[in-house]
Structure formats: structure tokens, C-alpha cells
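User: Hey, quick favor. My workstation is busy. Could you predict this chain's structure for me?
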Amino acid sequence: MFPDCAKQFKEVKSRASGEETEKSITEMLIEELKQREEEATEAQQQADVKLLEAKKLASQYQKEADKCSSGMDTCEEAREKSAESLLGQRKLTALWEERARELGWKPGNDKPHQNQ
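Assistant: No problem, here it is.
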């Protein structure tokens, strides 16, 4: 009986060892999956932080662009008003020059009169 008992014991031991190896591999795989999940979660969190920073930066650039655009509009309006004013002043100057010529004024004859 001893030889059969020892043979059966080896088979049981061999099976148990195989089951332990399977458990060990399964546990290792589970551990690796957990680690990869943690790494993926951390990477996602970092990506979320970077995305939020990029959105904030884009918002700041947009605000600056809006200010610049508003400033350009203001400058353009001022330029247009200045051009209109200059045109008006040129017309008024031409009118006064025409009247002065009618009264005998000639270009180059603009020395002040001295009372004697």
C-alpha cells in the first residue's frame, strides 16, 4: 500500500502545486492590471489638469484678443473722426483763403504789418 499511497500523494501534491502556480499567476495578473489601472487613472488626471490649464490660457488669450480688437475699433473710429475733421478744416481754410484773395491777399505776402 505504501507505493500506491506515495504515488497518489505525489499526484495530489503535483495538482496542488499546479493550482498554486495558477493562483500565483492569476494574482500576479490581477496585481498588474490594478497597477496599470492606477497608472491610467493618474495619466488621465494629469491630462485633465493640462487640459484645464490650456483652457484657462486660451481664455486669457481670448480676453487679450478681445481687448486688442476693441482698442483697434476705438482707434479706427478716432481715425475716421480725425479724417472728417481734417477735411472740414481744409474746406474752411480754402474758404478763408478765397476770401482773403478777394480782398487782395497774395501768398508770400504774409508779413505782419508794422504800425509807423
